[in-house]
Amino acid sequence: MLEINNLFASVADKPILKGLSLAINPGEIHAIMGPNGAGKSTTGYVLGGRPGYEVTGGSVSFDGQDLLALDPHERAAAGLFLGFQYPVEIPGVSFVQFLREAANAQRKMRGEEPLSGGAFLKLAKEQAALLRMDMDMLKRPVNVGFSGGEKKRAEMVQMGILDPRLAILDETDSGLDIDALRICGEGINAIMRRPDKAVLLITHYQRLLDYVKPDFVHVLANGRIVRTGGPELAHQLEEQGYEAVVQEGAA
């Protein structure tokens, strides 16, 4: 599904990714962990096509397409979803209208019929219930007045409505209390744990992985993956810290 080969990328002329390679197949959940400044968020932003992140080498293929040749909205329509560490607020724009416009814009690019008002509201109610959100919240301006946990849950509702093939979730656990963490984890599993979908979780901590159990855990350091293992690697990182595990992998 996703093939990253020897990827180099810079921000403001500063090299961040330095030969990142990673393959993700349908049905798999991958987690990327690593210290601050390792390039975790940069990986997500480069894959999503965020402006200001310059690819200086390597390639990325998504479902056989050159992902780097696509504009951000084309990547989204192709089935890629990027969840942000800090979802933005959009005053004056109803969340439910924002979600409907986003869903129908992607459907149009794929040559599909737009969702009617009734069909969309039914889908939105189902996804909101999955994340235990009241529909009244989605009638408010996008993320305005939402707590950190509510913003993340609303983003999971958006993911459920857009129904992507690959979800890249950047520190979804950031700012979540225990209950919100469990709800978001259950939502990710319900929406994305399917044979034709895949997830890339970007996180500092092992706690989200208690709910969304990964098939593979990768340690990112100095812009490249230095070690790969199973779920047990996340527990090792939690116990020993990044420095010890990175040094052990280099030994």
From TrEMBL:
Q: Which UniProt keywords apply?
A: ATP-binding, Nucleotide-binding
> Keyword DNA damage, does the record have it?
no
> Which superkingdom is the protein from?
Bacteria
Residues that span the membrane, as ranges: none
Which CDD domains does the protein's record reference?
ABC_FeS_Assembly
Q: Which family does it belong to?
A: Belongs to the ABC transporter superfamily. Ycf16 family.
User: Entry's PANTHER family?
Assistant: ABC TRANSPORTER I FAMILY MEMBER 6, CHLOROPLASTIC
- Record protein name field: ABC transporter ATP-binding protein
Q: Which organism is it from?
A: Novosphingobium colocasiae
Mind giving the lineage of the organism this protein is from? Bacteria, Pseudomonadati, Pseudomonadota, Alphaproteobacteria, Sphingomonadales
Gene from which this protein is expressed: sufC
